[in-house]
Write a structure and sequence with these properties.
Oligomer: single chain
CATH class of the largest domain: Alpha Beta
Strand order of the largest sheet: 6-5-4-3-7-8-9-10
Number of domains: 2
Family: Belongs to the MHC class I family.
Structural class: alpha+beta
Largest sheet: 8 strands, antiparallel
Organism: Oncorhynchus mykiss (Rainbow trout)
Number of helices: 8
CATH topology of the largest domain: Murine Class I Major Histocompatibility Complex, H2-DB, Chain A, domain 1
Protein name: MHC class I
Shape: globular
Keywords: Glycoprotein, Membrane, Signal, Transmembrane, Transmembrane helix
GO cellular component, one term: external side of plasma membrane
CATH superfamily of the largest domain: MHC class I-like antigen recognition-like
Length: 351
Amino acid sequence: MKGIILLVLGIGLLHTASAVTHSLKYFYTASSEVPNFPEFVVVGMVDGVQMVHYDSNSQRMVPRQDWMNKAAETLPQYWESQTGILKGTQQTYKASIDIVKQRFNQSGGVHTFQNMYGCEWDDDTGATEGFFQYGYDGEDFLALDLKTKKWIAPTPQAVITKHKWDSNTANEERRKHYLTQECIEWLKKYLDYGKSTLMRTVPPSVFLLQKTPTSPVTCHATGFYPSDVMVSWQKDGQDHHEDVEYGETLPNDDGTFQKSIHLTMTPEDRKNNKYQCVVQVKGIKEDFIGVPPDQDAANVVPIIGGVVALLLVVVVVVVGVVIWKKRSKKGFVPASTSDTDSDNSGGVKKI
């Protein structure tokens, strides 16, 4: 059959609902010689939803959610003060990326220097976690160990900065207080301000896609919220990981998320075994089940490739977040008497 086969799946089994881990994160990205990209970008996110944005082109910190304006009303001149802070931070990061390039004996070329920081809170157990790290050209550069309040330097070029910052114990104590106390307080405030958006649950639409009878079967879940999702394949009722390729959870332009997982199997495997795709979204009790389409079945719907391309494309990519290619749930950057005060986080200083 020409084109791509599409099957929309419904609700299947039930599973026990689990608590959601909420997060407040900031991403600071300095870059050099990246075409059509600002030299400095700041993105603030709550539960994976972008709430604030700043870049060196506009030189303004602006809200990305309506409820963020409500939160800012509690702080006089919030946007003006944050814009002023980030203008100064922009200059610090410009100097820092130049210093790091020198340490790697680099001059020109495309380079990125990022700082990620923030905190997480489990609304069921009350457990919290803070994180603060730097990356250069997509690789880890520095990471803070909150227990020892010492920096970890995975590369020789970062050792000089590690020794410099480790000696400033007062600054690291302030940073730890921010990450473990103030950041959690701000996270809870933002969750309250944006609860109609951030505390909602939206079930996924699940599609099974296959170009030909011998090509991989893609299970594509989209439109779900929150972003905590488990997408997996089962074979004869058992978890199946062989010949499976896992995609990342990506944002849609409407604030929901999407994720794909690909399974390679022969027509004979599909004939002799029962495969199914299982999608579980935190906070939603139902499991969403999909079974690979049978090319000979009357209910299989052929669609043109362009339609599937729209389903699979990342509609929106948060600028500054995806440059750091190494996957990690940890990470982040500066803060003020607001949650992004550089004095509180201790993040704004030269490398």
